[in-house]
Amino acid sequence: MRMIKTVYRVAKMDCPSEEILIRMKLEDFHIIKKLDFDIEKRKLTIFHSEMDPDIEVRLKELDLDSELEETKTIDWIEDRESEKSQSRLLWTVLIINFAFFTIEIIAGIVSRSMGLIADSLDMLADAFVYGLSLWAVGASVIRKKKVATLSGYFQMMLAVIGFIEIIRRFIGFEALPDFRAMIAVSFLALMANSICLYLLFKSKSRDAHMKASMIFTSNDVIINTGVILAGILVLVTNSRYPDLIVGAIVFLIVMKGALRILKLGK
């Protein structure tokens, strides 16, 4: 089977949110058989059965600085079994992220740690991105945009509440967070994210949405390590400020993710 392969460089595509944005923008083109994303190289490869100038027009509308690099005709072999395997793996990663969101939010409230609470919301943000890309298969464009909008506003609301709480704790007289809970729970989250990262690497998939998942999970590992370090600093300095600083940084990451997800609803 002959197919057209078109490659675009998308300069502003640097996370899974842009991938979902592009998928939703192009999903009603029935001539498109597959989209491959390479987040690291900022490349989008489209496999389609015929030429349609509206594809490039849609990409330009996203304002992601997309530029056509190559178009050629190739032989095409569809691999449905690989897609099923990737879907199962992404469901596994989604479930682990949501489970640890629940664990960390409860532990953060009990231990009075803003670092743990912020980290839990980052896990929730990841679960939203994975869930949108998986759940949205077969759904209407309008429904996908509604889910994206609600998810984005929900995350933004949580981030704003988090910032307000951090400011209150900065100027107030709060008890020290439980550094033992911070270190223990973040270590468990670190192990969970490391397992996710291992599974993603083990899949040896070159598809960009899998690479994007690896990038997201790698960021989670860094954040988990930061909360562990904050717990150690709370112990050493006998101060609540390391926890608040790490919490503020993670809430900024959550807010950035919320803004990107809100783009999907436009």
Task: Outline the secondary-structure elements.
Layout: E1 2-10, H1 16-26, E2 32-38, E3 43-48, H2 54-61, E4 66-75, H3 80-111, H4 114-135, H5 141-171, H6 179-202, H7 208-237, H8 241-263
Antiparallel strand pairs: 1-3, 1-4, 2-3
Helix pairs in contact: 3-4, 3-6, 4-5, 4-7, 4-8, 5-8, 6-7, 7-8
For the residues shown, what is the average pLDDT?
A: 80
Biggest beta sheet summary: 4 strands, antiparallel
- Give the oligomeric state: single chain
Order of helices and strands: EHEEHEHHHHHH
Strand content: 5-15%
Terminal CA distance reads: 36 Å
Number of helices: 8
Q: In terms of structural class, how would the helical and strand content be classed?
A: alpha+beta
Number of domains: 2
| Order of neighbouring strands in the sheet with most strands | 2-3-1-4
- Unreliable stretches (pLDDT < 50, length at least 5) are none
Radius of gyration: 20 Å
Which percent bin holds the helix content?
A: 55-70%
Tally of strands: 4
Shape summary: elongated
